[in-house]
Design goal:
18 strands, six-stranded parallel β-sheet, seven-stranded antiparallel β-sheet, nicotinate phosphoribosyltransferase, 2 domains, binds zinc ion
Length: 402
């Protein structure tokens, strides 16, 4: 036992891989580098990334980091763009190739673990964020969940949440990386240390209009505190409820009751913000009850990863893959008219959709000869495309339910 302890390298810092270690393939599963050693010839391969996720759609993200990871390797990469809201199979059930990488196997194989990790987690977070966008619409929601995950990845979490539709993020570094101001209200600790009403006063007098949110549930009943705060600071923008689960009972009904009492007493301009363990369903219910702003944590930051996997689909120009997968290099198209997806072999001629609509290509070449083909879109532009698509999903579902 003593000998074993002595052989463990002392590690007093954080348990994270730095960029250099990730780029060197050290954050990869060992079997890739083992298989590399056993290969006598390096082969030209086409590797394709598909997903077994069965949701109706996902919000794809994480590509920017993949391109950074693989740079300056000599590869050709085509991909679906970040922020695409898309099913994982086409209308005929063929898996959509999200990323296609062509090059020597020695340049690709040992990076598989890291490539997948970058898109699986980011896309899971973006997808959860897009779902909350739909539940909270037309009201804003914010990513408040970095405290549930390792701090080293907080910028990735906040970026993915923002791309997926979040109106802002609470993380200082996350906000900095997406060129935004971080969003925050007041912590319970401020009410505990300063006294509740002193803390309210500080927020009311020092925060800019539109951003004055006071937390009203530190000590007393929510309704009593809400009315007391409203009387003291009638110009406040939001009152925030972060009621603990143990005291919650029916949270939407608490919000309903407070909205009623505030309206009755002429405080219609004071909005209600809610936070604390919210998910898609609770956000939708609280919105119906009268909440007009949402802080969402774990549901977004710790969202289930989207299962992507990477497979060789061609070696030296010959279509080959493992069972359960579809061989050969492919392209993915979407009909401009009926919006159906169509995956076809890259060697095939592109016809029209059965409905007569034009087929538009979704996977474009994004990286060639060691560098990106064009400058990357800003995160703000990616989010704008996402919310435009989510708005069209929302208008489609409201037309259907009429
Ligand atoms: Zn069509």
């Amino acid at each position: 036992m003593k000998r074993l302890i002595n052989t463990v390298k002392d590690h007093s810092g954080f348990f994270i891989a730095d960029e250099e270690e990730i780029r060197a393939g050290k954050a990869s599963d060992v079997y890739f580098s083992r298989s590399m050693k056993g290969l006598s010839h390096d082969q030209e391969v086409v590797a394709e990334i598909t997903s077994s996720n069965e949701e109706e759609w996902i919000t794809f993200s994480g590509l920017k980091e993949v391109l950074s990871l693989l740079s300056p390797r000599n590869l050709t990469i085509s991909a679906i763009e970040e922020g695409e809201i898309i099913g994982t199979r086409d209308s005929a059930g063929i898996p959509v190739p999200f990323i296609t990488i062509e090059g020597k196997y020695s340049e690709i194989g040992e990076m598989e673990t890291a490539i997948l990790g970058l898109i699986c987690q980011s896309s899971g977070i973006s997808t959860a964020s897009s779902r909350v966008y739909i539940a909270s619409y037309p009201y804003p929601f914010y990513s408040f969940g970095i405290r549930r995950m390792h701090p080293a990845i907080s910028p990735m979490i906040d970026r993915a949440a923002y791309i997926g539709g979040a109106y802002g993020v609470s993380g200082i570094l996350g906000a900095e990386r997406i060129s935004m101001e971080p969003i925050g209200t007041m912590p319970h600790s401020m009410a505990l240390i300063m006294g509740e009403e002193e803390a309210w006063k500080y927020i009311a007098h020092n925060f800019p209009k539109g951003k004055r949110t006071i937390l009203i549930d530190t000590f007393s009943d929510e309704k009593e505190s809400a009315l007391r705060a409203a009387r003291m600071f009638p110009d406040i923008d939001y009152i925030r409820l972060d009621t603990p689960r143990s005291r919650r009972g029916n949270f939407p009904n608490i919000v309903r009751e407070i909205r009623w009492e505030l309206d009755l007493r002429g405080f219609k301009s004071i909005k209600i913000m809610v936070s604390g363990g919210l998910d898609y369903d609770s956000v939708a219910k609280l919105r119906e009850a009268g909440a007009e702003s949402f802080g969402v944590g774990t549901y977004i930051s710790s969202a289930k990863s989207i299962d992507f996997s990477m497979d060789i689909v061609s070696i030296n120009g010959n279509a080959i893959t493992k069972k359960g997968k579809y061989s050969g290099k492919k392209d993915v198209f979407r009909c401009s008219n009926c919006k159906k997806l169509k995956v076809i072999p890259s060697s095939s001629r592109i016809g029209k959709c059965q409905c007569g609509g034009i087929l538009e290509i979704l996977n474009r070449t994004v990286y060639e000869g060691g560098k990106q083909v064009k400058n990357y879109e800003s995160d703000r532009d990616i989010r704008m495309r996402v919310t435009k698509k989510l708005n069209s999903i929302l208008s489609k579902s409201s037309t259907e339910s009429r």
